[in-house]
Amino acid sequence: MPTDAADFISYRFSTRDLPERIRIPAWREHFGRCVVHADIEPLSRIPLQADASLQVVHGLRMLALKGTSMCFRRLQANLADGDDSVGMIFCSPGSSQMSQRGRDVELRTGDAIAILHSEPASVTYVDGLQFGLAIPREALEQRLSNVESLVMRPIGHRTEAFRLFTAYLKSALKARALTAPKLRRTVVTHIHDLVALALDECPALGESSASAVVAARHDAALDYIAIHFQEPGLNVQAVARCQGISSRYLQRLMASSGTSFTERLNELRLQRALELLTETEARDRRISDIALEVGFSDVSYFNRLFRTRFGDSPRGVRLARKAAH
To answer: How far apart are CA 18 and CA 213, in angstroms?
Structure first.
């Protein structure tokens, strides 16, 4: 399927509701040969199970696959589709094996690798979730001096460039940014820039690279805050240190989205407190205990913020909830 087939295409395929006797031929024909243009060989002795989703926008294809072990092979006959894109394959969880240009590489959980769709290759998936991107080669050649020299080189998930890329991608998918026409082009350009940065730490990026990295750092910081907001000692310095940036830079990142670090942190804590106050299981818990659980060490401060945010005290919200039930 060509990358520019339409503004946005979403395709799903599952063997879940198919009789076992036709699962393999249907998977091979409809998904393998017609969608991803590859031959598929199931490797598990148990009945084939596969769920796949493919999203296509101009300049990007994304494939998510969950199922039993199988091997995808792009053979010489498959190359007739003219696909010259560069594939980025992510391994999560377990391990996967890639073969291209006479090289065999095994990926571990969290790592990634780039392959050329214009040359024969094989990808062996183990059970679990696999994710891949396909980016037009031309888009990467505008950013990298030698794309071919960067394929079949494992990209460790601990590198900063790769961490920024995955954080940005996760945020974009969660926000369904690719389905929004006004955001789509910007998001795709950012992904191109961040893939180039992950492949080569010194790419020849243009003006958009700065905004791509800023967006990725911003999303990574938001993800970290969303995970750790209930920790009482969480502050700008702690988050900045974990993100490898300065406190002042983090504050500027937060301000770029129209909110401060403190405002974002308090909003997450207050929303969680509201959930706890209205949960049946927590109706007998002391309000001070709930305040401490969501990260507020000062109960009076928590009460003031809660009233300002929701127009009532924590006790008032709880009583209203009880009265309603």
So the answer is: 44
List the domain range (segments joined by +) for residue 18: 1-154
| 192-224 exposure pattern, b = at least 16 Cβ within 10 A, e = fewer | bbbbbbbbbeebebeeebeebbbbbbbbbbbbb
How confident is the model over 44-73, as pLDDT tens digits?
A: 888 899 999 999 999 999 999 988 899 999
285: domain CATH number is 1.10.10.60
pLDDT in tens, 274-291: 999 888 776 778 999 999
How far apart are alpha carbons 74 and 95 in whole angstroms?
Answer: 20
Of the ranges 111-115, 196-200, 240-244, the best mean pLDDT one: 111-115
State in Å, rounded, how far the first CA of the chain is from the last one: 54
Residue 135 is inside which H or E element, if any? Answer: strand 128-135
196/190 Cα distance (integer angstroms)? 10
The Cα-based distances of 242 to 59, 168, 262, 302, 316 in angstroms read: 33, 17, 17, 26, 38
CB-based contact 167:215 (threshold 8 Å): no
Would you say residue 311 lies in a domain?
A: yes
Number of structural domains found in the chain:
2
127-180 pLDDT per residue, tens: 667 889 999 999 999 888 889 999 999 887 777 788 888 888 888 888 788 888
Helix (H) or strand (E) holding 162: helix 160-174
